[in-house]
Amino acid sequence: MQIALLGIIQSEDFENEILKRREYVQRKKDIAIKALDKYCNSDILYTILLGGLSIWLELPKDIDPEELLQKAREYKLNFLPGHIFFSSNYNKNYLRLSYSHLADECITKGIQILCELIDNY
């Protein structure tokens, strides 16, 4: 098995596939960032993790991510409330957005709707 994998990893096709995947994920991330910059107000901070496939949003303290998620689901939007990633309630006003599996226009429209929901919370 290891010899077979070594052959795949050392092939030019593998290198080309990795480059294509990087470009794909970078494009998705750029679309998400552009939408956040366009639609989110300055009360919402976001963090982009290096090498990750998601963006962390820090919401104003008065917004409950669980409640926001219920409203978002009415628009067929989904995200992960940040508290499930932490052992304490310290970071309860965070949420995690994933973008790598979505169509480009869905990323933009979804972030637009989410930011409107946050603004109208």
Defining traits:
four-stranded antiparallel beta sheet, 121 residues, 4 helices, alpha+beta
Q: How many beta-strand runs? A: 4
Helix content: 40-55%
Overall spatial form: elongated
> Roughly how many Å apart are the termini?
53 Å
Widest beta sheet: strand line-up: 1-2-4-3
Beta-strand residue fraction: 5-15%
Q: Please give the radius of gyration in angstroms.
A: 17 Å
Order of SSEs, N→C? HHEEHEEH
Low-pLDDT runs: none
Number of helices: 4
Q: Structural class of the secondary elements?
A: alpha+beta
Main sheet record? 4 strands, antiparallel
The average pLDDT value, as a whole number, equals 89
Itemize the secondary structure elements and their pairings.
Blueprint: H1 2-9, H2 12-39, E1 45-48, E2 54-58, H3 65-73, E3 80-81, E4 94-98, H4 104-119
Antiparallel strand pairs: 1-2, 2-4, 3-4
Helix pairs in contact: 2-4
Q: What does this protein structure show overall?
A:
The chain is α+β, with helices and mostly antiparallel strands. 50% of the residues lie in helices and 13% in strands. It is built from four helices and four strands. The chain has a four-stranded antiparallel sheet with strand order 1-2-4-3, covered by helices on one side. It is elongated. The termini are far apart. The mean pLDDT is 89.
Short description:
The chain is of the alpha+beta class. Helix content is 50%, strand content 13%. The protein is elongated.
